[in-house]
Specification:
The complex is a heterodimer of chains A (about 110) and B (about 120). Chain A starts with a strand and ends with a strand. Chain A is mostly beta strands and about 110 residues long. Chain A has no helices and 10 strands. Chain B has strands at about 5, 10, 20-25, 35-40, 45-50, 60, 70-75, 80-85, 90-105, 105-115, 120-125. In chain B, about 0% of the residues lie in helices and about 55% in strands. With about 120 residues, chain B is mostly beta strands. Chain B has no helices and 11 strands. In chain B, strands 2, 4, 5, 6, 9, 10 and 11 form a 7-stranded mixed β-sheet that branches. Classes of the chains: A mainly beta (about 110), B mainly beta (about 120).
């Protein structure tokens, strides 16, 4: 089965730009989706596909993909963006399996 | 509006089984695949498996093969996740999540658009 690798923790100064990455072989075939999770809450979708934001997600969130790496970028990070972020993709085997990255804890300083 | 409402918290002894439900409303139940995801305390999200509410077919993560069973009841728009031979490491919040498939610029994309509120399962002697 596939694996997705994320940095465990990243920090960013308030108002600055931060990139969170996700690496894995399955990303050569499938786009990642990105989820934000705050303590005690269910995950919330922030980016899907190449660079698509669901309704209600601020446009400071964007996504990109190259080779085996997907990236989530927050341009002008806000205090409320402090959360855990997870990438998810289909398994590279081509069946219905899915896989999550280990998650990145974002701290806004 | 779309809602996924899960059953309440459970406390189980090691070796027992637990069955968590996820009742869907606000959309055509059989038109969207449903997934189960769990999160142990202080840990990340872990994908467990998928069920097609239309035909009932399932696929499970290898880690849970033989211990997990996902079923559905179309008459009540409810999916179930049963995990057997529980051990302390199964203590976690279990979520159901609806999958949506979209095509954008001829590219197919899959993602989870709605999540249940989560069900805490505690395994303790």
């Amino acid at each position: 089965s596939s694996e997705l690798t994320q940095d465990p923790a990243v920090s960013v100064a308030l108002g600055q730009t931060v990139r969170i990455t996700c690496q894995g072989d399955s990303l050569r075939s499938y786009y990642a989706s990105w989820y934000q999770q705050k303590p005690g809450q269910a995950p919330v979708l922030v980016i899907y596909g190449k660079n698509n934001r669901p309704s209600g997600i601020p446009d400071r969130f964007s996504g990109s993909s190259s080779g085996n790496t997907a990236s989530l970028t927050i341009t002008g990070a806000q205090a409320e963006d402090e959360a855990d972020y997870y990438c998810n993709s289909r398994d590279s085997s081509g069946n219905h399996l899915r896989v999550f990255g280990g998650g990145t804890k974002l701290t806004v300083l | 509006q779309v809602q996924l409402v899960q059953s309440g918290a459970e406390v189980k002894k090691p070796g027992a089984s637990v069955k968590v439900s996820c009742k869907a409303s606000g959309y055509t139940f059989t038109s969207y695949y449903m997934h189960w995801v769990r999160q142990a305390p202080g840990q990340g999200l872990e994908w467990m498996g998928i069920i097609n509410p239309s035909g009932g077919s399932t696929s499970y993560a290898q880690k849970f093969q033989g211990r997990v069973t996902m079923t559905r009841d179309t008459s009540t728009s409810t999916v179930y996740m049963e995990l057997s031979s529980l051990r302390s490491e199964d203590t976690a919040v279990y979520y159901c999540a609806r999958e949506i498939v979209v095509v954008v610029a001829a590219e197919k994309m899959w993602y989870f658009d709605y999540w249940g509120q989560g069900t805490l399962v505690t395994v303790s002697s």
